[in-house]
Amino acid sequence: MADPKGFMRHARREWPRRPVGERVKDWDEVYVPGGVLPFVEQQAERCMDCGVPFCHEACPLGNLVPEWNDLVSRADWHAAAERLHATNNFPEFTGRLCPAPCEAGCVLAINQPAVTIKNVEAAVADRVWADGLAPPRPPERLSGKSVGVVGSGPAGLAAAQQLTRAGHTVVVYERDDRPGGLLRYGIPAFKMEKAQLERRLAQLRAEGTRFRTSTAVGRDIGAARLRARHDAVVLAVGATAWRELPVPGRALAGVVQAMEYLPPANRVCEGDLDVSPLSAAGKHVVIVGGGDTGADCLGTAVREGAASVTQVDIRVLPPAERDEAVDPWPVYPTVHRVSPAHEEAGELRFAQDPDADARLFAASALRFSGDGAGRVRAVHLGGVDARRRPVPGAERTLRADLVLLALGFEGPEVAAGGAVAELGVAVTRDGTVARDEEYATDVPGVYAAGDAGRGQSLVVWAIAEGRAVAAAVDRHLMGATSLPSPVTASTRPLRA
Ligand SMILES: Cc1cc2nc3c(=O)[nH]c(=O)nc-3n(C[C@H](O)[C@H](O)[C@H](O)COP(=O)(O)OP(=O)(O)OC[C@H]3O[C@@H](n4cnc5c(N)ncnc54)[C@H](O)[C@@H]3O)c2cc1C
Ligand code: SF4
């Protein structure tokens, strides 16, 4: 700890965002490039180097937060980068995308604003690339074993990198035309530019990982061939089966799923399309679902030039600050968070209700109605209480030309012809791929990691599971492993 009084000297200061009016005109990341650098060393000095660092406990990766905070506060970027990569293959992803359970668990957060752990992580990660501190690390010798990884989201990529570096020949199969999973066609570029992904993919390729894109396991390559080709298989197919809203009017044109809407918008950023076929330009948009996917739809619709956007959340307005009786420190609390997309919609008055930041809480979509041509024109809402019981008299109608359903995901796709069904692995009652503590499914040599096994989760958990499944596969192939295994299949976030 460079300065034992750092937390008394310096107030928390976050990575500044670009002005709203500027950033909604492009798809670049919302943060000022390099904007955290002038004060990041002071921010790292706020870390108390706790004897029991709950930041570390709260992070599925077990990130060595106090160590890299100390190194950054001393401007030893090289050593900080080494410590950062000791536990995380892709810190530039988590430094941008993670909701930071580490900060919720930071000891300083008991009575002060937490250390800006996520900003420090992003700053170190960016410095790593700027200074060429992340060269490819190909293995010194090959094991002669081969692993097929199905799916190229953060879980598949982390598993592939760990296994390749351990000397195995790894082939990643991806049904999309480009690797990346939800980082590619789900998460918008204003949260993380695709260049971040490309850099890591180039590193993986240079280390020896091979990618077979536009190749769906089950459709383009059968399970028997896959298993015959490889000594082990890792299923990292994500939890992409979306939740439906079976209410009257669901079949109207213009009512689409968030993950039908976001991929073409991302393809515009990739240069594949000039305009998305589902563009919100000039439309009144209603997003049903109050989570992060809904917020990503909101930021996208604002950038596409929607006439108005409203996000409907069935939950009641959460408290502004942690309610200790419900979510005591150090658990991740339910609080009213204002994402950059909400900030934009609020400042630019994008909601139909001009007082709101685009969100309507305690509201449930009851039905959609359309015009004579079968196109959606309105969403009819009912009010609900905290236990989601109807509140009489709280009904309202919103104008809508485009309705985006962002209600979360059921689990992996399990229909016949998909990877899960064709490999014949058992599925739990929750709809996820069943596995033991070491990620092994009931089919010998087939493992499952990431959202496919955990259910809809976070990038940080996907990377942690990718690292852990690599250790399990390495042990299966070689009889022993020195790869780290930060979480088991049943590890869960800190709970009260
Ligand atoms: C819109 C959206 C925004 C999100 N934002 C955030 C965020 O800001 N922060 C955060 O931490 N988390 C976020 N998440 C969650 C996060 O993206 C996921 O938890 C994470 O990507 C899961 O990683 P994964 O590798 O398990 O699966 P995925 O990223 O879903 O990747 C699975 C891959 O498997 C491929 N695949 C499926 N079947 C086959 C097959 N048969 N053959 C070959 N390939 C196949 C898919 O095409 C896909 O590329 C978001 C999720 C969504 C939907
Ligand atoms: S809990 Fe907070 S103050 Fe303590 S070591 Fe972690 S980041 Fe530093």
Hetero groups in this structure are: flavin-adenine dinucleotide, iron/sulfur cluster
Globular, elongated, flat, extended or rod-shaped: what is the shape?
Answer: globular
Q: How many H/I helical runs? A: 19
- For the record, the count of structural domains works out to 3
The name of the CATH architecture of the largest domain is: 3-Layer(bba) Sandwich
Distance between the termini: 30 Å
Q: Mind telling me the CATH class of the largest domain?
A: Alpha Beta
Largest sheet: 5 strands, parallel
Walk me through this protein's architecture.
By secondary structure, the protein is an alpha/beta fold. The protein has 3 domains: 6-130, Alpha-helical ferredoxin (Fumarate Reductase Iron-sulfur Protein, Chain B, domain 2), CATH 1.10.1060.10; 146-240 and 410-478, FAD/NAD(P)-binding domain (3-Layer(bba) Sandwich), CATH 3.50.50; 244-407, FAD/NAD(P)-binding domain (3-Layer(bba) Sandwich). It has 19 helices and 15 strands. It has helices at residues 6-9, 20-23, 40-45, 54-58, 65-73, 77-85, 91-97, 101-105, 117-130, 154-165, 182-185, 194-207, 223-229, 258-270, 292-304, 340-347, 419-423, 451-454, 459-478, and strands at 146-150, 169-173, 210-212, 232-235, 241-242, 255-257, 284-288, 308-312, 359-360, 363-370, 376-384, 390-399, 402-405, 409-411, 446-448. The strands form 4 sheets. A 5-stranded parallel beta sheet has the order 3-2-1-4-15, sandwiched between helices. It has a 5-stranded parallel beta sheet with strand order 6-13-7-8-9. The longest helix is centred in the last third of the chain and has 20 residues, at 459-478. The radius of gyration is 23 Å and the shape is globular. 46% of the residues are buried. The mean pLDDT is 96. The structure holds flavin-adenine dinucleotide (FAD) and iron/sulfur cluster (SF4). Iron/sulfur cluster (SF4) binds next to helix 4 and helix 5. InterPro entries: 4Fe4S_Fe-S-bd (IPR017896), DPD_II (IPR028261), FAD/NAD-bd_sf (IPR036188), FAD/NAD-binding_dom (IPR023753), Glut_synth_ssu1 (IPR006005), Glutamate_Synthase (IPR051394), Helical_ferredxn (IPR009051). It comes from Streptomyces typhae. Pfam families: Fer4_20, Pyr_redox_2.
